[in-house]
Specification:
This protein is α/β, with parallel strands linked by helices and about 625 residues long. It has 21 helices and ten strands. A hairpin with a 2-residue loop joins strand 4 and strand 5. Helix 7 crosses helix 8 and helix 7 packs antiparallel against helix 12. The structure holds adenosine-5'-triphosphate. Adenosine-5'-triphosphate binds next to helix 14.
Length: about 625
Amino acid sequence: MPPNKVSPLEDILDGDAWRGKTIDNDNSSDDVMDHEDDEPYKHTISTAEKITNYLLCRGDLNSQEITIKPVSLFGLLRFGSRYDNFCFFLGCVCAILSGISQPCLAIIGGRLANTMLVYAPTSDEFRNAAYENVYIFIGMSAAVIIIHLVQYFCFHGVGTRIILRLRREFMRALLRQNAGWFDRQHSGDLVSKLNDNMERIHEGIGDKLGLLIRGFSMLIAAIIIGFIYEWRLALMMLGVAPLSCFTMALMARKTEGVAGRQMAAVGAAGSVAEEAILGVRTVQSLNGQPEMVKRYTDRLTDSKGFAMWNGFWNGFFGGFFYFVLYSYMGCGMLYGGYLLSVDIIREPGTVFVVIMAMMLGAYFLGMISPHLLVLLNARAAAAQIYQIIDRAPKIDVYSDAGKKPSGMKGRVVLENVHFRYPSRKETKVLYGLNLTVEPGQTVALVGHSGCGKSTSIGLVTRLYMPERGRVLIDGYDVNSLNIEHLRNIVGVVQQEPVLFNATVADNLRLGFPEISREQMLHVCKMANAHDFIAKLPQGYDTLIGDGGVQLSGGQKQRVAIARTLARDPKVLLLDEATSALDAQSEGIVQEALNKASKGRATIVIAHRLSTIKDADKIVCIDKASYCIR
Ligand SMILES: Nc1ncnc2c1ncn2[C@@H]1O[C@H](COP(=O)(O)OP(=O)(O)OP(=O)(O)O)[C@@H](O)[C@H]1O
């Protein structure tokens, strides 16, 4: 069954036009282990990109290493609907118009200058010409306001909508990945992909792209207008463009380095804060608050130095940029004056038009230079995100493929199972394990730490696939069963129950949103959880905090057991479900587990005798031998 729609933004997010293609999963039983290593990649920058970078004084960007092939510019719009594509196009047109309009305003400025310098202020000609130009000026300014508004509205809307979809698709794709893949990832990296990369993509299809288009079109329009009005002055003024570009490129080179180090130091401080908050009870119980605050402050102090340098370079080059612009403007005025004196230029307004247009072009060229990386960064960030979105794992929880037999009893057979983890291929964990659990029977798995007990039950839920041998339920190879169906038949209770920051009822609904109140009460009674839940301030609707922090360990475990029972699994896998509890809680939870395992095939992993004393069979796992008692 495809996953349920999860967001109230269905109207925006609905529709398949933007949905990325994924590789179909055949769920075939001849799949071996889930070996899916991602190939390393080194991207080479195209010649056009190299030339652009050199022209804009950013030759340093040509040597940077990009380890993923960036998507194309249009690839950034992959999750855009037709409406988004239209808005994007309209935004680009408005950005170009907005860019062209600025040098055009310089023309009106020049005409006004002419009026003031040529006519007597009291004459009718002066009044008429001045009014005419002022009206044109106001009219054009009003048009610029509208163009700006449409441009920002379009880019902002497109960016926001596409990022919303992208975030949802990324989250959906993340939760689709198999355990072997997660073993090779760092959760911090994935969260930062969700935040930083999305931000970069947003910049690439949003306001910053508008800024780039506007800057380039402004420069081109300024050059054209300048050369049309007076090519000699325009040619002289053209020199300001590389100068301003060079100044801002220098600033970008200096600040990018220190800003990166500043961000890294702030990030390190953030990690300390996150660790301290997550482990606040341990910190407080050890009176470790001053130490944690000191560690946090030390990291922040590291960032202070970089922040100061960042500010210094920004201030210095920002000021120097204006110095370059105004000095050049002065030189332009002198040269314009000379051309006027030798009658090459007839009207003084022409000098203003050329100088103002070229200055505007140069100013915006300088402004966009630090943002040159925006597009490349966005394309590389999109490539990273799409790589995960497009990754269809062999064990695919969203796949519709596979058998869904009804009326399953839950007879579990592990037949000569060999296994090693994909992330540690050199170490073999299971060496031909054989195990049979009849419906209604409880089998205890025992053995020394690390012998492969948890691994065995992970294979029953098909978290991983055996290297050799088969795992069967009612005679069906688990590889041939539909994954969702399999995980409805098999229920797992872990040592550390994982509850979420929601109400008790919401936690019980996870994976089974249709559960009725009666069913909820029934499973909670079976799990010895109903009595304490009923005494909570809002009963089943009580919020239980991060990870269920407002419940005791035993209470959390009973809610987790009830949640597992909600889907009425035929096979119950208990992975040291009581080992983290004190003796009293253990008794209550054990009683709940005994009730829960009635009529189901149950595999219990335990170290305590009390947990396994009622088992029908005890299987001892020891590297190359498995003994049954
Ligand atoms: N995700 C993983 N990636 C790589 N190796 C793993 C992974 N999980 C477990 N292992 C290794 O596989 C072996 C078996 O681990 P498993 O968790 O099945 O042992 P166990 O018998 O349940 O141990 P314990 O009783 O301590 O819980 C161990 O050597 C462990 O280091």
